[in-house]
């Protein structure tokens, strides 16, 4: 039936029509045991979101968004990809259309995203933040846009309020080493129970593929550290100074986004000469670039160990695939993909290099290619040495895998090859303040898996014990693993 026909029959305010929503109390829970595990153990736990890309300025200043498009569609490349696939003109995505027009266009095409996680996420977010229990469509788009925009004008729907609504205990943003962390300092002075932390993300500091960008970065690093960088030793000293600065301002995590983790034995190339060559205008080969990254990461990871940080490696993306559209619209706009890089050999060698010198800190490795799930799940077992529970972690399903099937596959691989009971759980990895129901989504999927195993006789019907495991995965493991206090 067309939306207009349904609207005519039921009316927007008719309860029979509104009951058409599929986001019920037992959404994704397919057994009585699953329902009990979720509602009694997982549902009310706080959220520790230890990796995301929220703007700390918007948190510190408790920003109020003018309308639903600003908070919901701006910067969301998941939605942008879907709209382009359905033939929506770019003016309604990143272009000159009004915010209301962009929202209505999204509402028009939403029904065609069925079985994509966007369909679930969208309606969860409508329910959890705005109590809208209708299926968003062209026919109700304008009224829902107005309803959401009106609520966003309330104090409860400023950035801090949106986070508090989802019971967020810790939100950890991701910053470049050059960041002055002023908004983290500002937030710390506020009387708010929620904690705002940061993760050190040095990707740009060794991005030699962008030769001119790297040289420009070095100049900025000189300004930030007041160190004249004429040599590789100067460069490492400057990065160490930024690590110390981040640590003094509460940072306890770092993160790295790479297609693969390169590894070379030290001395394969002369690192100091490579740095000098770059400074003198000579571009490096891909092998030399990878060596430079490897040696730099070795230095950084040893510093992370010294500081007691948790290090994260997000591995597997193939970035900026469509050069025409990247040049037209920009990076981080929906033109990245799953890569099929060889991961196991160099990953093992890199972690072993640190471990044999007893300088491997707590580590989380995230996989973007589902065919490598078992590779990553097996790898972590090599470096869990009994000193810390779950010292090396196979991180949550992320990016393209952050959906029901991807989450289940990651959990199954970890269960079969590692120990799911030690898992530090979910994160949003998002730029959106409305993305935190993804924790609920994960918790429902987890409880459904465990509950169904009980129903099939594959796990004991020991609800208190299983509930304890679920609570650990959803909250307590992360609380004990990360030093956010």
Number of helices: 21
Radius of gyration: 23 Å
Number of strands: 9
- Which class best fits the helix and strand makeup? alpha/beta
Shape: globular
| Distance N to C terminus | 54 Å
Could you give a short account of the major beta sheet?
Answer: 7 strands, parallel
Instruction: Give the averaged pLDDT, no decimals.
Output: 95
Task: Show the helix and strand layout.
Elements lengths: L2 H8 L4 H4 L13 H11 L4 E3 L6 H5 L7 H5 L4 H9 L13 H12 L6 H14 L10 H12 L6 H7 L2 E8 L6 H7 L6 E6 L10 H15 L6 H17 L4 E6 L12 H9 L6 H22 L2 E6 L1 E2 L4 H7 L7 E2 L5 H12 L6 E6 L5 H9 L10 E3 L9 H14 L19 H19 L7 H19 L4
Parallel strand pairs: 1-2, 2-3, 3-4, 4-5, 5-8, 8-9
Antiparallel strand pairs: 6-7
Helix pairs in contact: 3-20, 3-21, 12-13, 13-15, 18-19, 19-20
Features:
485 residues; alpha/beta; 21 helices; 7-stranded parallel beta sheet; two-stranded antiparallel ribbon; single chain
